[in-house]
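Technical note accompanying the year-one report. For the benefit of new consortium partners, we illustrate the data format agreed upon in the data management plan: each record pairs a sequence with a structure-token string. No post-processing was applied to the example shown here.
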Amino acid sequence: MRPGDYRCFIGQAENCGSGTRLATLGRAFTIARPKLARVMRKSLIAANWKCHGSLLMVDDFANALTHHTMADVVVFPPAVFVERFANQALNTVDCGVQDIGVAESGAYTGEVAGEMAREAGAKWVIIGHSERRNDQQESDELIAQKLLAATRAELRPILCVGETQSQREAGDALAVVEQQLLSAVAKLDVSQISIGAVAYEPVWAIGTGLTATPQQAQDMHKGIRELLRQIDERTADETRIIYGGSVKADNAASLFSQPDIDGALVGGASLQLDTFMGIIAAA
């Protein structure tokens, strides 16, 4: 019922801020406007070390990082350090692998199966990072298979999506991200994506000197959430969408203040412990 409809039944109504004040038969009462429930999503701060790190670095981070009440913290060291990190950081922060293979086992030199990663202590996996899409030429089809393999291995996936500078300048940013997102989830129940996260990586803002403003990031995150909402309302509300475009301690708070930015996938800034802890503190 619209506010104006009250006059059809009561005869007099006045707006009183928190609701509608109705006067009838010498009495007045207030019907409160319905409040829209705000879905609370715990922040996710993920450190992607890429091809960096050492046993000493693993020990330093694992011993310094502690459970954070406002954010889930996950570290993605190179695969050879996962077991060491998982054992050192037991019950404080999670760790994950930066990629997995599709097969559960077999003659696939250099591949690591999801089940192997989980047995080593990984709980998370990054799927479809822009560097693998570009450098290793990973296709949307392969990324969809890896996402399915991650869920089969009971790993929590961070699915990466994002457009290049030329795609953004052509006005195709959201269309590119839509194609990446929908093709990735095509092989699984879309609700499974909410156990992990979606990471928006504006490729044009990574290592180029260009920077996405908090509003630009928010606009894309909102667009991604609306794409998910077209498939499933609950998944859209529950899925954490994190930002992966050159997050630093000095811009983290402004990014995290946006309503659809639920954390960050941090690259270079995650290699310095103090800097990374500053980003966590901003969550």
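Partners are asked to follow this layout when depositing records. The first strand starts at residue 13 and ends at 15.
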